[in-house]
Each structure stands twice: as C-alpha cells, then as structure tokens.
C-alpha cells in the first residue's frame, strides 16, 4: 500500500491549490458581468465612453434576458389588471376618451395606462413632451427596472431622468462622468434598452 505523498515545499502547495482552484476562477471570470458585457448597457458604461468590445466581438444585446417593448405590449393586453395599470405621473402621458356629444360634456383627460401607450390609441397627449415611441421605450425600461431592481441596466429613478432629458424637460443628463448626454442620446439609449 502506498502512502499519499505529502507536498512539503510551501511553493508547491500553493501551486497545487491554484491548479485545483483554477476552473472555479476561470468559470467566474467568464461570466457576462465579469467580462463587462453588461457594462456596455449601463449608463455609466455608456457615459464613460469606455465601452469598446474589440473589432471582432459581436455587438452586445442589451435586451437579452429582459423584456422588450414587444413583450411588454403583449403582457399589457392579456388581462384586465394589466390593461388598467397606470403609467407613472412622471411620464406625463394622458388619455382623453373620444367625445360623444349625445353623452354630454367632453370627458376629462386621465393618466394613461401602459396598455394605451403600447397600443398607441387615439387620445393620448404628452404633457411633459416626447411622443409615443419615446413613451414605449421609457415604459419598457421603467417596468424592467421595477421587475429586476438588482440586475437590470438602470434603476427606475435613472429611467425617469433619462426620460426627462429625452422629452426635453432638462437640457443634459450629467451623471458625474466626463460625458453628458443630450436629448438625442438619452432617447437612443432608452430605445436600445427597449429593443426599438
């Protein structure tokens, strides 16, 4: 019977432990987060300008793993509860039902539902600026941020800031980085995250 050889040299022991730990370390650094793939989709990654993926790398799909505007539109049309869920007041999108003179006074504008935004119904008005394409993108990003508060590319308050700039309520988005975004950049970023 042979005894298991003890490694007596401390350097050799470290090397032996490193070889055993190697697959775990490699597995952890090949995750999407460790290699920075999701960094490209984050506001800080976009604003820093440090988002190069290399010449031969495939473009990063920022919608992968989350819901696109098509998914959200489908979801909002499926049941009465989803159909009646109101969009946040910060979006400033209102709905006025068609007026039937036989029924009396014209209806008042009320906060629009997500279903109305995704359906692009007649009667929507945008009190804070923007248009329906911007609202669909912002609503998608906002709902994703609420559904995945830890893992999503932006938080709900940042989504509202992006919308504010994109809709023209603020001149720039300054997130403490050297690069500030104007309305066009914020709009494009929201559309990218929504898959538009």
Summary, kept brief:
The chain is mostly helical. The chain contains eight helices and three strands.
Task: Note down, in words, how this protein is organized.
The structure is a single chain. The protein is mainly α. The protein has helices at residues 10-29, 43-48, 69-76, 80-84, 114-119, 132-147, 156-166, 183-194; strands spanning 93-95, 110-111, 124-126. The chain has a 3-stranded antiparallel sheet with strand order 2-1-3, with no helix packed on it. 27% of the residues are buried. The model is unreliable at 19-37 (pLDDT under 50).
Question: Which short descriptors sum up this protein?
Answer:
196 residues, mainly alpha, 3-stranded antiparallel β-sheet, 3 strands
Provide the succession of SSEs. Answer: HHHHEEHEHHH
Spatially, the strands of the biggest sheet line up as: 2-1-3
Give the distance, in angstroms, between the N- and C-terminal Cα atoms.
Answer: 69 Å
Q: In terms of per-residue confidence, which ranges show pLDDT below 50 for 5 or more consecutive residues?
A: 19-37
Indicate the structural class.
Answer: mainly alpha
Strand content: under 5%
| Radius of gyration, whole Å | 24 Å
* Total of DSSP H or I helical runs spanning 4+ residues: 8
- Estimate the mean pLDDT confidence: 74
The helix content is 40-55%
Number of strands: 3
Q: How would the global form be characterised?
A: globular
Largest sheet: 3 strands, antiparallel
Question: What layout of secondary structure does this protein have?
Answer:
Layout: H1 10-29, H2 43-48, H3 69-76, H4 80-84, E1 93-95, E2 110-111, H5 114-119, E3 124-126, H6 132-147, H7 156-166, H8 183-194
Helix pairs in contact: 6-7, 6-8, 7-8
């Amino acid at each position: 019977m042979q005894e298991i050889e003890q490694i007596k040299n401390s350097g050799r022991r470290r090397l032996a432990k490193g070889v055993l730990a190697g697959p775990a370390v490699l597995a952890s650094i090949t995750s999407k987060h460790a290699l920075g793939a999701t960094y490209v989709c984050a506001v800080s990654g976009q604003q820093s300008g440090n988002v190069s993926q290399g010449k031969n790398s495939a473009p990063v799909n920022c919608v992968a793993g989350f819901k696109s505007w098509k998914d959200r539109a489908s979801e909002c049309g499926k049941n009465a509860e989803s159909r009646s869920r109101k969009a946040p007041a910060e979006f400033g999108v209102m709905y006025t039902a068609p007026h039937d003179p036989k029924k009396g006074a014209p209806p008042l504008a009320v906060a629009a539902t997500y279903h109305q935004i995704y359906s692009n119904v007649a009667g929507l008005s945008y009190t804070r600026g923007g248009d329906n394409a911007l609202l669909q993108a912002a609503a998608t990003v906002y709902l994703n941020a609420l559904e995945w508060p830890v893992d999503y590319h932006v938080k709900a308050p940042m989504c509202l800031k992006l919308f504010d700039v994109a809709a023209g309520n603020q001149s720039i988005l300054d997130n403490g980085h050297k690069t500030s975004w104007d309305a066009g950049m914020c709009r494009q970023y929201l559309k990218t995250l929504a898959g538009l």
